[in-house]
Structures are given as structure tokens and as C-alpha cells.
Input
Amino acid sequence: MAKRTTRFVCQTCGAVAPRWSGKCESCGEWNTLVEESEGSGVGGGPSKKKPVRGRAVSLVSLSGEIAEAPRLPTGNSEFDRVTGGGLVRGSALLVGGDPGIGKSTLLLQVSARLAAQGNTVVYISGEEAIAQIRLRAERLGLAGAPVALGAETNVEDILSTLDAVDNPRLVIIDSVQTLWTAQIESAPGTVSQVRASSQSLIRFAKSSGAAVILVGHVTKDGQIAGPRVVEHMVDAVLYFQGDGAHQFRILRTVKNRFGPTDEIGVFEMTGSGLSEVANPSELFLGERDAKAPGASVFAGIEGTRPILVEIQALVTPSALGTPRRAVLGWDSNRLAMVLAVLEAHCGVRLGGHDVYLNVAGGLKIAETGADLAVAAALVSSMTGVALSVDSVYFGEISLSGAIRPVAQTVQRLKEAEKLGFTQAFFPGAGAEAGYGAGETGSMKISQLKALSDLVVRLAAGTPET
Output
């Protein structure tokens, strides 16, 4: 009898080790190595059988007719925006998010709208019973939607069920961490099971033309649990984000083979489910106090959508030897750089002050164009001079104190003008690209070359001139 060979696979990063150890040498996580069989299944060792010669694949040239991928609009405008105009037939999407954030609610609403248009939709749950899904549908007012429900975790049974369905258009699997296949000798949720199950469902999507949405759990770091290779296998990766203290949620795309990346869709959690937010700028701005210092409005871009959001800063004298730096919704390293530039080139002494920075509404900003708005909020809180509520700020700050231009200036200004803002502060280099008063309507333009220009205005108590 041949000796059975095993290996140990890290459940966090997928690294393979010949023997068990308490700590993974690749990612540094503890107690993540799980024993798996090496001789069978996806990712197994080399086969001892005689190699089989494969068939030749036909090769074509780069030139030829190009047909756009057919799309299937779901009727949910925010979801369609994130996916690039609707679901592409034969595509596979991976949706991740924190527990209880609303992933199942969103996908149930999307499936109900799509089924109401006459499309065949199959919803397979591996975490909830059919009665639980029916209770949620009844609460959302979707009990009458012609969605086919199923509760199963075995991949072979799921594929057999889908083969019996006539022309399925959308298949939702909730969630991929609960699936298991008989080809792999390991528990559900392990790296091998998630990889093999995902591959089988993606193969079904490509062969049948149905769009498959896989729901994935996330780790404590906010990344989708399981092997990262799954994110490479699928066509689109979406993250459903939000804060439990706020009522709105953000669906963000980080990968999309058929549309733009970094696109976001905004939803508001209500008693009847998730409702679409057509104008998220008004939602993120909310009620603002015209006399309170330390608040500025940043005109940002999320994907292809301009969004205005309020930046809040609080600068207070510190009683600690090392002042605190607390940041919510922005990069803490970026804040440290802005503070260093303010102190080195603008004479703003913040070394003995605690600094608190917050992006209102729970939105997370990764754009460098927020540097100018953050600096304006910090100086406003430091000097006690309130910024004009009718002004917006955007621009990237360099280490030399200069303000660098950012992309899509016209879209930012038009969004600000549409919401009633009358003044904009942005880099002076924007005029060289043809951004004149004719393109910005009635807005007053204040083009800045250096950060010290804005600091001088705020220190003089005249930020609007």
C-alpha cells in the first residue's frame, strides 16, 4: 500500500509547508496551518499516470470584429453603476463585506428585481434555511418575486440542480466559504475547498452564460477570506462597506474586467431594505454649522462619480508627551505628511497639539486630492477661523509646499456648482489645462500655487478672498 502523503496549507495566505508549525512563515499568522491530502484534488501534487497529450487550440490575430459583452441590467441603478452598466452574461462576481452589513439583503433585492423582468434567477444559500430567506423576503416586500430558492453546500449537488434549470440568467451563492466538494479531502472553508468550489462555479458560468455572484466572508483586516487566487479567477470583486453607526452603505468595486474600477454605489439602510441614493453628496454633507471652525468640503472623485464630502478636524493642546493623531476615513501616513509640510513651510506649529481628523458619513477616502481640504480644516481649527460654507477644496500637496493639480477638475467644479457652492480653491496649474470661468459657470475660482497662500488667508481671517 502506497504511503499517503500530506501537506500543510495556510488558511490565510495559501502557503504550503511540508510539516506543521504554529506560525506561517509566509504571512506570519499563528495557528493557520491545516493538514490536507497532497495526492488528489485541485492543487495536488504531480500525477504518476502517463501524461496525456492535449488538443491544439486555434490561434487568431489581434485584428477582427469586436462585439461588446451583452449586459443584463438589474433595475438597481446603483448596483448597475458599480458593475459597469449591468451584469455581463457568463461572468463571475465576488462580493465581500463585514457580517451583518447587508450583503444578503442587497443580493436578494437585486435577484427579485431581475426575476420580475422575466429572467430565471436561482438563489442558493449555504448559511440560512429556506424559511429564513422567506422571512427576509417578506420583511422586504419581495415574497411575490419568482426567485428559485435552494439550501445546499455540496458543489456537485448545486451544479446538478443548475443543469436542470432552463436557461438561468443569474445564480447567487451565499456563501463560498460554506461550499465543499467531494474532490477535496478537507473541511469546508479551507483554502483547497474554496479554490476548488469557486473554480467549478466559474466554469459553469462560462459554459452556461449565466452570471454567477459568489458571496465571500472577510477577515479582521477587511480582506476576503480564503486564497487570494479566487479574486484573480473571478471577473469582478466588489466590497460592501459601511459603519454600523450610520444608515448608509457603500458598494465599491476593486476589480472589474468589464467596467471601471473604484466605482461606488451608495445605499441607505431603511426598515424596508436598502434604498438607492441618487445624490450621495447631499447625504455625506448633511447639516453643517457655518460658524464652527475645522470643517471643509472636499470635492472628490470616486470612480467616475464626483462626490462632495465634509472633512472635520480638531486641533487641541496636548497634555501628553507624545500628541495623539487619530484619523477616521483617511490615511494616517498622509495626515503625518500634511502636518510636516504645514510646520516646515507654513510656520504652523502642531507638534504640541492633539490632532483628530474625521471624514463625515463614514466614507473612506484614498485620493491624494484631499490634501488641500485636510490642510484647510487643520489650519481652520488651529486658528479658530471658520471656513466659508460655500467653498470647496481639492488639490495634492507636495513635500515642498506646492499644490499639485488633480484630474477631472471640471467634473468636480460642476458637481459643486450644482449643489450651490460659489467658490472653489484648487491648484493654479488647472488654468493651464483650459479650466476657465466659462466652464465653471458662476463659481468664483481661487487658484493656489502654494499651501502658504491658503494659510496666510486663514491666518488673516479672510478665507473667502
Residues 283-459 form a domain with the Ribosomal Protein S5; domain 2 fold (CATH 3.30.230.10).
